[in-house]
Design goal:
Elements: E1 2-5, E2 20-24, H1 34-40, H2 50-64, E3 70-76, E4 79-81, E5 86-88, E6 91-93, H3 97-102, E7 108-115, H4 118-130, H5 133-164, E8 168-173, H6 185-190, E9 200-201, E10 207-208, E11 212-220, H7 239-244
Antiparallel strand pairs: 1-2, 2-3, 3-7, 4-5, 5-6, 7-11, 8-11, 9-10
Length: about 250
C-alpha cells in the first residue's frame, strides 16, 4: 500500500522536494535473510543445529501474522556534498569524511526510514513480559532483520526511481555509523513528516519502534555502490561489518 505525506513537520517544503512516499511491505515479500538472523544469534558462518532453524522458522511465521513492516522516503534535489558534510536544502549534516566522500557525485539525496512497525514492537513487549531470555534474544534478532529487510525494500524502490532518471544509487548510510553522530537523527527527522511510518525519536535520538532504520541514499549518474569502509571504522558492533564478513 502506498501513501503520500507532506514533509517538514507541517512546514512548506522547498520546490525541489516531492511528497514523502510511504509503503507497507507484505511480510511475505520482505525477503528475510535467515542467514543474517543466524549470524546475529552468534553462529557466524557455521550452520546452526536443526532445532534452532526450526525455532527461527516458527517464530518468524508467528511474527509474520502480526507484523506490518513499512518504509518511506523523500528525494531532495538541492544538495551539496563537501569534504566532511552534506548540505540538503540548506540543512547541514556533519556525516564525516567517510560518508561524504562516497556521495561526492550525488545529484539527488533520499532521506528514508524503514521499520518493523508498531505491531512488532507491541508483540516484542509481550515477549519481554514472559521472561524467556532465549525467545527474547531470538525475537530481537528477527526484528532487526525485518527492519533491515524493509530498508532494502526502500533501496530497491529508489533504485527503480533512479533508473527512470538515468541514475544509480549508493549504499545506505545511517546516523550512528561511519563517524556520523546519532544526534543528527533529529535533523533528519526534522526534514520528514511528523512520525514517518509511525516512528518517533526520543530525546537521546533513538527511534521508537526500536526496530527501525533511518538514513540517506544518494542518486546520481556517476554514483557507484562502493563497499562500506569497514576496515577503518571503529564501531565494533556495526551490522554492516557482519555483511562484509558473509
Amino acid at each position: 500500500m502506498e501513501t503520500q505525506q507532506s514533509g517538514g513537520h507541517g512546514v512548506a517544503q522547498a520546490a525541489s522536494v516531492g511528497p514523502m512516499i510511504t509503503r507497507t511491505v507484505p511480510f511475505s515479500a520482505l525477503g528475510i535473510d535467515t542467514g543474517e538472523i543466524y549470524r546475529s544469534l552468534g553462529y557466524g558462518a557455521t550452520e546452526p543445529p536443526q532445532n534452532v532453524k526450526d525455532m527461527v522458522g516458527e517464530m518468524t511465521g508467528a511474527i509474520g501474522e502480526v507484523c506490518h513492516p513499512s518504509y518511506g522516503y523523500v528525494v531532495h534535489e538541492h544538495i551539496e556534498a563537501q569534504r566532511t558534510k552534506l548540505k540538503i536544502d540548506g540543512t547541514e549534516f556533519f556525516t564525516g569524511s567517510i560518508i561524504a566522500d562516497y556521495l561526492q557525485h550525488a545529484e539527488n539525496l533520499a532521506l528514508f526510514v524503514a521499520t518493523a512497525g508498531v505491531e512488532f514492537e507491541r508483540w516484542l513487549r509481550e515477549m519481554q513480559a514472559t521472561g524467556d531470555v532465549w525467545n527474547l534474544f531470538l525475537a530481537d534478532s528477527i526484528g532487526s532483520e525485518i527492519a533491515e529487510a524493509a530498508a532494502r525494500a526502500a533501496a530497491e524502490d529508489l533504485k527503480s526511481t533512479a533508473a527512470k532518471k538515468g541514475m544509480r544509487i549508493s549504499n545506505s548510510y545511517s546516523p550512528g555509523y561511519c563517524g556520523w553522530s546519532v544526534r543528527e537523527q533529529q535533523k533528519l527527522f526534522g526534514m520528514l513528516p511528523a512520525a514517518p511510518c509511525g516512528i518517533t525519536l526520543t530525546e537521546s535520538s533513538l527511534m521508537v519502534p526500536i526496530k527501525s532504520v533511518s538514513g540517506i541514499i544518494a542518486l546520481g549518474k556517476d554514483i557507484e555502490k562502493k563497499p562500506y569502509g569497514c576496515e577503518i571504522c571503529e564501531k565494533g558492533d556495526c551490522y554492516k561489518k557482519r555483511i562484509m564478513q558473509k
